[in-house]
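Extended Data, panel c. Modelled sequence:
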Amino acid sequence: MKEILELAKELGKAIADCEEIKTYKEMEKIYFESEDAQNAMREYEETRAAMTVKAQQTGMTPESMQLFQEEMQKAMDKLMENKTVRTYLDAQSAFNDILTKVNSVIAYCVQGEEQNMATSSSGSCSGNCSGCAGCH
């Protein structure tokens, strides 16, 4: 067990030293210090929450689902106009991709099968729905 924990510590240090993590930490600091970015995210979250409540209250027909998705995409597009938010979310996605791939390699070594997310370059949500079906 001690050897495993030592290897985990080494892995953690290697991950902490990779460029994607450093970039993510830098962008996280900039993002949280930016009033404009915070306001943009708050506005998006308020829109998302209001749309979700509205959808739950009115029920979802295929037509209302389409409208919901269109409104959420508009809100996401507006959010992504903020360069700080966009850069932060991209850095967060790169960070999450590394962790997902590392976890997949570990799972493969332990279980003998690679997880589906290991080969996916979009194993996590960057917040930009242009490349997916949209979970928001």
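Helices lie at 2-17, 19-33, 35-58, 62-80, 83-111. This feature is highlighted in the accompanying rendering.
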